Amino acid sequence: MPVKIKSKYKKVNENKIYNKIKPYLKGVFIGDLLFIVGVIICGLILYKSDSTSSFFYYIPYVFMFLGAFFCGISVQKGVGGRGFLIGILSSLPYLTTIILFLCVFLRFNVSVNLLITIPVCLLGGFIGGIIAVNSRI
User: Fold this and answer.
1) What pLDDT score does 9 carry?
2) Interacting residues of 60 by C-beta distance below 8 A, sequence separation 6+
3) pTM of this prediction?
4) Which end of the chain has fewer surrounding CB within 10 Å, N or C?
5) Are the C-beta atoms of 90 and 29 separated by less than 8 Å?
């Protein structure tokens, strides 16, 4: 008769890990999708209008902020906890994908435009996380 040996180490359940990462992936997907759609719409408007107004310079930053904002709200509702911390942590993967996206299109030219994205995205996630804690959405 075989003897069962009890292990002092717990088995890692892959479903538990996936369930913890799932809200972050959902939030990053929502934020990236909002940013990409917003930039495409902004590009089409700029292409069709033949305008060189400085107003169009700030629109991608608004979409970055909104993407991080909704990313913070989405992750906070899925995870719970402290709003500002979860909001900032949720905006880090979003920020990484946005920076990679911008580096590809800017040909890895680090400029002030790329450095502005960091506080914009962190602030958006921060505010989104706080609003998600204090509201009943």
Assistant:
1) 57
2) 35, 38, 39, 42
3) 0.74
4) N
5) no
Residue 21: CA count within 13 A, CB half-sphere? 6
Instruction: Give yes or no for a contact between 68 and 122, defined as CB atoms under 8 angstroms apart.
Output: yes
Q: In the structure encoding, which two tokens stand for residue 74, read together?
A: 């989405």
- Identify the CA nearest to 88 among candidates 128, 134, 125, 132: 125
Q: Are 24 and 75 in contact (CB under 8 A)?
A: yes
Q: What is the CA radius of gyration of the chain?
A: 20
**Residue 13 above 60 pLDDT?**
no
100/75 Cα distance (integer angstroms): 21
The per-residue pLDDT for range 23-63, each reduced to its tens digit, is 778 878 888 888 888 878 877 877 787 766 677 778 888 88
**CA atoms of 65 and 131, how far apart (whole Å):** 14
> 94: how many CB neighbours lie within 10 A of its CB?
29
83 CB neighbour count, 10 Å cutoff: 21
